[in-house]
Amino acid sequence: MVQQYVHQTACHLRRVDPDGAAGTNVGATGYEDVYTGLSENHVWYLGNARIGGSLAASVCTVSVGDALPPLWIGPRDRTSSVPVLLKEVTLESEDFDRRFRVQALDRRYAFDMVSPRVMEIVMQRDDWTFFLAFSTLVCVCAEPFADLAAMQERLALVLGLVAMIPSFVEADRGAHLPTLPDGTVLDLTDPSAREAMEKAFAAMTPQEREQAVQQIQEQGLRFVAGMFGKDLPPDKLAELQRRLEERHQHDG
Predict the structure, then answer these.
(1) Between the CA of residue 183 and those of 46, 79, 177, 178, 186, what are the distances in Å?
(2) Which of 34, 163, 173, 187 satisfies CB 3.0 to 4.6 Å to 47 for a cystine?
């Protein structure tokens, strides 16, 4: 998902159709000068994306921990690359709203996440986007990294934005996945973690397995409620619960 987003966003920032329509020749996305590391339990990647050998953009991704509802911030005069389900949210800053567009599933969530300090940082330039893709914050900028100093500066900025995520948002909206027997948190994107969880489930008693499944289901329901806002109708939550129970009975 992140790779596709980077491809589309780099094209949009350069005002090129990512699908190659209207006679444009858009190739695949490759990466150069890629670095990765770990800072305060946040895994990060830095690099330059090159599309079709000509278009280029700088990319920085930082893990945020528990998955959060998606959020997008980008220049108003550029096409958005995020799912159509996200709706535009107007904030209370005329200057910011004139230059940038914020998209989320829930207005309250957008207000909690995009504080005046976040707006101030985003408005430092007009050629980048920020996309919270569940457990990863992705920054794509039309200007490639020129040197290591530019990479370090961008990484510090994105890590700073991750640190600004309010703790109450993480507590209320985050998907708190279960821990493995060794104490590590389950990462659904890591095949080895999924294999470890499967082995752990196989070693559980029926009662332990039922409790673990119930925990995962409850976290899923809470995350859906967080994505769509606190005003999600009770009947919708009840419907989600019914479907989960039916699926559990069918699988059993």
Answers:
(1) 29, 42, 12, 9, 9
(2) 34
